[in-house]
Amino acid sequence: MSDKQKDKKEIRVWCDGCYDMVHFGHANSLRQAKALGDVLIVGIHTDEEISKHKGPPVFTQEERYKMVRAIKWVDQVVEGAPYVTTLETLDKYQCDFCVHGDDITVTADGIDTYHLVKKANRYREVPRTAGVSTTDLVGRMLLLTREHFKRGDKEYSVALEHSSNLGTDSTARSPYTGCSQFLPTTQKIIQFSSGLSPKPTDKVVYVAGAFDLFHVGHLDFLEAAHAQGDFLIVGLHTDLEVNRYKGSNHPIMNLHERVLSVLACKYVHEVVIGAPYSVTADLMDHFKVQVVCHGLTPIAPDADGSDPYLVPKQRGCFKTLNSGNSMTTDDIVQRIIRHRLEFELRNTRKEQKETSLMKTLQRDHLKQNGDCDVKNDSC
Q: Which family does it belong to (predicted)?
């Protein structure tokens, strides 16, 4: 290391938020924040704080802490971070500035949660990821439609009939959470990918599944699978395949969204996009797979009735893993359904506060530019 590199000041970046149902949008925001510095510290609010200012979170605080720790760009997690970001918080963790997406977050009183750090010029903004939000995902589960996984020329349209009331109507929509499209690109996949290849001496482990609504059950399983070797490859089934063996309106997230969610996990090295349901000899030989793992959940037969894990079983390299976590995607959906009215109320209030603050900011901007009658406060 040169003297110049030694003298270079380490830039510490602060991010905070609820990080509920930690999805690839959150991960992308954290990826961008990490790129602005050297160390990324992420503060996460408690269930009590979130319930006070927004409404009930879907994931518990312990689940959210664990999920964010597993995102590959995060260096440290601060539990129970204050809802309003203060200069004292930044100083406590030696952070140079705070980073957040270009959407608006407000307290229960409608106050911008970043107003203090903005005033002190210790705030940076990154573009939010279009096409996904916790509110949108909750809405998809409550609507129980297949709007989120269309085909043909509509393949990339996501929740175009997003409901502000999470399933009770399709009229109002938030300018920040009423997302209309997720547009996958090769660049986005490259940004999320580790870019690594297994070394000749690496023991390659393969797992496959839907990994829909990426949650702590998935996370614990991937951690256990990662421990079986040196290089973990995850096969993700197509939307049509997932719908075949899971039925209902599954998957909640389309294939492109699930790819980014899995790639953001620090235990994963590579993803096979649209992997075959049956683990074939060709697949194993191509990736030099030495261990194939599956969790304790039941294994559905392939479309022809065959065992999808017959080949790795015949080769003596199939392992059933007990991650110690029995959570499933269906469990998450049931949480939403049980608390439907609470989530509907949460979303309505959130949009009302966003709209009110947005109008205030627009009015202030017009006043500053002399486009308003300041005396009469009319614009």
A: Belongs to the cytidylyltransferase family.
H helix intervals, 113-263: 115-119, 134-143, 186-192, 216-226, 239-246, 255-263
Average pLDDT over residues 187-193: 88
Comparing C-alpha atoms, which of 264, 266, 268, 193 is closest to residue 235? Answer: 268
Cα–Cα dist 228/204, whole Å: 9
Read off the pTM: 0.79
φ, ψ at 272 (rounded to 5°): -100, 115
The first and second tokens of residue 95, run together, are: 């952070």
Helix (H) or strand (E) holding 31: helix 24-34
Query: What tokens were used for 242?
Result: 């997932």
Q: For 195-225, what is each residue's pLDDT tens digit? A: 889 999 999 999 999 999 999 999 999 999 9
Identify the burial level of 158 via C-beta atoms within 10 angstroms of its C-beta, where 0-12 means exposed, 13-18 middle and 19 or more buried: buried
Distance CA 226, CA 224 (A): 5
| Pair 55, 84: CB distance under 8 Å | no
pLDDT in tens, 34-51: 999 999 999 999 999 998
Residue 374 — very low, low, confident or very high, per pLDDT cuts 50/70/90? very low
Strand runs labelled E in 69-149: 76-79, 97-101, 123-126
Who's near 325: CB < 8 A, 6+ residues apart? 216, 217, 219, 220, 221
Residue found by looking up tokens 């709007």 in the block: 147
Q: 138, 142, 111, 77: which is closest to 353 by C-alpha?
A: 111
Contact 260, 189 (CB under 8 A): yes
